[in-house]
Amino acid sequence: MDLRHLRYFVAVAEELHFARAAERLHIEQSPLSRAIRELEQHLGVRLFERTTRRTCLTWAGKVFLDEALRIFACIDQAKASVKTAATGYHGRLRIAVSDGIAQPHISALLAQCRTEEPEVEIRLSEVPLAQQIKGLNSDLFDAGFAQSNEVGEGILAEAVWSDALVVTVPARHPILAHRRIPLDEVLRYPLVLCHPDSCEGFWTQLKRVLRTGDTKLIVADRVPTLDLMMTLVAAGYGLGFATEAHIAGARNPDVIARPLAGRSPMLTTYLLRRDSEPSEQLRRFIDRVNPSFGPTASSINQRGVMP
Hints:
seven-stranded mixed beta sheet, alpha/beta, two-stranded antiparallel sheet, globular, 3 domains, D-Maltodextrin-Binding Protein, domain 2, Arc Repressor Mutant, subunit A
């Protein structure tokens, strides 16, 4: 087994179609099929269930896909480390970001890191929460940010900042008659929501807020990113939810943000890392996280959210 077999396997596993995978790899279908047979013989398991109508992964194939992707991630990191050394950096931190964490927070932290420790490269990866946790456990990431503290054993989750939840509304929508919108009123309209698989932590915290309403949700669409949610809200597909910090970093003249009536719900962001003694480099990064985020809710309000 060599990397060619792994690369061919990943292409078929992601396409679930031999002809499309062969086209993606720029090879004929017959050598692709032969390579997959060789791989299955080498492993002694069936990786795919194949019929004349469809191709799907076996359970062994799904497990092997995770391992193959991890191997390629390690190779990519090795290449990145070499390039980092060649460009003069003397250290590197691999930071994962999940749940559409607000850009102003991350930008402020990166700016401080570049000022105080410019010789350390910080490489960001935007990944789903499940992939971040797996990457932390397998040493693909040094730390990460997510909106969930349900991370399992071996991972520490420290609350680092909180942002007020707001309703995102298309300009000229009738609900804008409310300066602070009752949740029951929001739930009368179609919603554009982040998909639980791609925004798991954000959705978990939002779901707790939505449970306080008595109305069944009308879901117009579920989208993979908060930025796409903003786009669909601007187009009039429905109302959405975001944080004040996200609104501050993603200004859209066709979207108005309004707070919910009553006490504004707060969504918490967590710093995740392995439950072990951090390196000195990572320790300095952790020490910068909390002091970096001084803006209060009122200072964010001045950048576009109506109090």
